[in-house]
Amino acid sequence: MDYSFCDCHTHTEFSACAEDVTLRGYSEIARTTSLSFAVTDHSAQIFYPPDNRWGFWSDNAVELFESCRDGGRERILDYIAAIRAAQCGGMLVGTELDVLPDGRKVFPEGLLSTLDVVLGAVHAMPTIRHERPLDEVHAEFRFQVEALAGHGMEVLAHPYRLLLGAEVPVSDELLAWSVRFAADAGFALEINSHKQHPDCDVAMTRVAAEAGVPIAIGTDTHRRSEFGDFSYHVDILERAGLPPASWPRHLWRPAAPAREAAAG
Ligand SMILES: [Zn+2]
Ligand SMILES: [Zn+2]
After folding, report:
1. CA of 93 to the centre of ligand 2 (A)
2. Per the structure, how many domains does the chain have?
3. Taking all residues of the chain, what is their mean pLDDT, rounded to a whole number?
4. Cβ contact 215:189 at 8 Å
5. pLDDT for residue 256
6. How many Å separate Cα 162 from the centre of its chain?
7. pLDDT score of 35 more than 70
8. Centre of ligand 1 from the C-alpha of residue 173, in Å
């Protein structure tokens, strides 16, 4: 099997939860190998002030957002400039976009379209924090996914991680909704190996493939040992009934302009 995966999802020291990974290290990999990958740090951990990088995950997320908009814009601009300066080989410049509970993006106006890759993630849900009934949790999930799509998300990262981590069931209906909406809105669904939920990933991959929704491959690397390890993704693809010969048809790749930008 010599398929060359594009890893849509990696973190650097710009993400507060990253461990031993550095932008310099990725740059070295890009310079010395033919690997293709996107650097996609958490937008909220850059936008929120350095002394409150987890502020987005609190009940004050909106207030804090309002109070740091100018600084947040500067920090995101500095982030993009830093990753662009390190970009070479098959490295792409992206973000893992967060949205507030009201659907606004945690990113300055006019900058998402300058990136090569825009992941979106449901990372914080007040309905889960406050143990609201299941129908409210699912409604908030759908609202955030719709908001992310409205902001131009290309890949929904680890679609159900937050729900599954909180032991919120992912119903067949919610899964079918996600795939249908991804097809309509034109984004891919990610198989993510950082926190693994194989049964759900197999089900999602099977339904997505049937519906013609692209499947993105992400390691969500937070520590070096995760980078370049696609064994989980291969396992999920095969368990979902997708042999390697079908991968070029089903797997998401960044759009051509982004690849050209990385090569230039
Ligand atoms: Zn994430
Ligand atoms: Zn991530």
Report:
1. 14
2. 1
3. 95
4. yes
5. 61
6. 13
7. yes
8. 23
Å from CA of 36 to ligand 1 middle: 19
pLDDT tens, position by position, 217-234: 999 999 999 999 999 999
Q: Are 250 and 209 in contact (CB under 8 A)?
A: yes
- Distance in Å, CA 39 to ligand 1 centroid: 13
Ligand showing the shortest atom-to-Cα distance for residue 161: 1
Which pTM value belongs to this model? 0.96
Query: What is the tens place of the pLDDT at every residue in 123-159?
Result: 999 999 999 999 999 999 999 999 999 999 999 999 9
Helix (H/G/I), strand (E/B), else coil: 8: strand
State how far Cα 167 lies from the chain centre.
21
CATH of the domain at 196: 3.20.20.140
Domain-located, residue 239: yes
**What single-letter amino acid sits at 143?**
F
Instruction: Report the pLDDT averaged over residues 53-61.
Output: 95
Q: Which residues surround ligand 1, an ion (CB under 5 A)?
A: 121
Listed residue (24, 108, 30, 36) closest to 65, CA to CA = 108
Per DSSP, what are the bridge partners of residue 51?
none
Ligand 2 midpoint to CA 97 (Å): 9
Transcribe 159-196 into DSSP letters.
Answer: TTHHHHHTT----HHHHHHHHHHHHHHT-EEEEESSS-
Q: How far is the CA of 120 from the centre of ligand 1 (A)?
A: 8
Query: Range of 238's domain?
Result: 6-263
Q: What are phi and psi of 244, to 5 degrees?
A: -50, -35
CB atoms within 10 A of CB 94: 26
Tokens of 204: 């999602």
Q: Is residue 1 part of a domain?
A: no
